[in-house]
């Protein structure tokens, strides 16, 4: 990934601290000694993405998701309004993901609308199945930890073939979900209605896909830091992680609801 670094042009410190900027003219022996003895610049000082950048941005986006979800939960937002917020969130996610320009404003807008959707849906399921939201949150955290551990120990390796197959599967699942939503909106029926083996199987597919997409997020973050991408790309990395975690939570929530509905 190619990048430009405008920070060097704006920050006067980079012309004084010996990180590679030289004054016009022949430097003296003392100046050369100072230059070579200066500490190396850190990624943050060079305007490169760091893990801290990703963590801070992920936390800020999640804070908006949680706040919006709390608002929807406490106000008892209707199901139709929740679906509308979810569709708007989906559109904003596509805009942020496909845009060549990093758009933090769009990402925060997504976090708000998606948070409303998550809060309303969670409240709906919690009223029907008390305790299900806590179980879904715990399941999401466990899946996140398991996939991170599997990625770190090399149990799951991100190869071009793995990435291609997973993206195709993810796109196929997204198309299926949109078609199913359209059928539900027109007829009131859904493949998940009534539970059963098919509904459980499809929900398991969603959970597995979302979990595997976490591995792609981890790899994207690691490669970005290693390759020294611009600091602004931390927004894109954080956004991808938030989108995947929200998706995973919703899939686990639906799976638990189907399982408890079959009891």
Automatic annotation (TrEMBL):
Tell me the Pfam families matching this sequence: BaxI_1
Question: Which InterPro entries does UniProt cross-reference here?
Answer: BaxI_1-like (IPR010539)
This protein's UniProt keywords: Membrane, Transmembrane, Transmembrane helix
Q: Does the keyword Ribonucleoprotein apply?
A: no
Keyword Transmembrane helix on this protein? yes
Superkingdom, taxonomy of origin = Bacteria
The residues that cross the membrane are 54-73, 79-98, 105-125, 131-153, 165-186, 192-216, 237-259
Which protein are we looking at?
Putative YccA/Bax inhibitor family protein
Q: Which organism is it from?
A: Kineococcus xinjiangensis
């Amino acid at each position: 990934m190619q990048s430009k670094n405008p920070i060097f042009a704006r920050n006067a410190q980079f012309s004084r601290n010996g990180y590679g900027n030289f004054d016009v003219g022949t430097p003296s022996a003392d100046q050369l000694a100072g230059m070579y003895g200066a500490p190396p610049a850190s990624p943050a000082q060079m305007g490169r993405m760091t893990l801290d950048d990703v963590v801070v941005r992920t936390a800020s986006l999640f804070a908006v998701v949680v706040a919006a979800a709390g608002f929807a939960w406490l106000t008892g937002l209707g199901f139709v309004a929740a679906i509308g917020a979810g569709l708007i969130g989906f559109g904003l996610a596509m805009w942020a993901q496909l845009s060549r320009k990093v758009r933090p404003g769009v990402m925060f807008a997504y976090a708000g609308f998606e948070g409303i959707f998550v809060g309303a849906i969670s409240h709906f399921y919690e009223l029907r199945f008390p305790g299900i939201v806590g179980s879904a949150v715990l399941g999401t955290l466990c899946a996140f930890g398991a996939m991170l551990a599997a990625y770190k120990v090399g149990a799951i390796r991100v190869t071009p073939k793995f990435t291609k197959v997973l993206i195709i599967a993810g796109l196929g699942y997204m198309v299926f979900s949109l078609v199913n939503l359209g059928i539900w909106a027109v007829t009131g029926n859904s493949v998940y209605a009534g539970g059963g083996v098919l509904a459980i199987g499809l929900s398991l597919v969603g959970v597995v896909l979302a979990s595997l997409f976490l591995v792609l997020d981890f790899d994207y973050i690691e490669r970005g830091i290693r390759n020294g991408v611009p600091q602004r790309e931390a927004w894109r990395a954080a956004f991808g992680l938030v989108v995947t975690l929200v998706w995973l939570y919703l899939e686990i929530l639906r799976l638990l609801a189907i399982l408890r509905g079959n009891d």
